[in-house]
Fold this protein.
Amino acid sequence: MDTDKLITSRFDTVIYDLDGTLIDSAKDMEVAVSRVLTDHGLPPVTDDDVRIFMGQGSKVTMGKAFAKYGRPLNDAALSAVTREFVRYYEADPVSHTTAFAGVAEVVARFARLGLKQGVCTNKFEKPSRMILEHLELMPPISDVAGADSFPVRKPDPRHILMLLERMGCDPRRAVMIGDSIHDAEAARGANIPAVLVSWGYTTRPASELGADAVIDRFDALPAALGELAGVAAASR
């Protein structure tokens, strides 16, 4: 059985993380974070800082940015600077953001196979949609669950499960593609396979996070899904 047939025999839905998985957004994040820090009399951060700070949503990112300069914030102050960040970021989330090599081609291939595709991210939904539309990834990606879409967010597995329900998809035929422990844990809790990319925004190597597969290039994703499908078929 060829790779495409193996994939569709096992999966009908692919859910992606966004930052560090589909897109390199660190520079635009760095610009917005640094503008807030500058407004509060602090130095800017680098995009390398932001790659480490990202993954758990804007509030955590901002908390880490202020903590870098010895300015821990209480919850009210953190909420306020997060709102400032969101205003800056939503005003221009795309100037420096690009899709990783191979993403557009793989997403298009999966669309031709009839797979449903969605994004589950701890970034807010509005800028996520803006970026995906700007990069012409939406469509074929049909839905986005952001940090503000549901009452929960990754690593809570309900973030994925509620998106799948909204998309009308069966979790038993879904797979999660991500870059961090939050993606791996959310997928594990949702009882769906997880494939992690090796280039993402994480302080721990993807190979240490307990994923079902790790890929070093995005165009290796179809083969990885084909292998998972083949293993599942052999075990039945």
Notes: The first helix runs from residue 3 to 10. The chain has a mean pLDDT of 94. The chain has ten helices and eight strands.
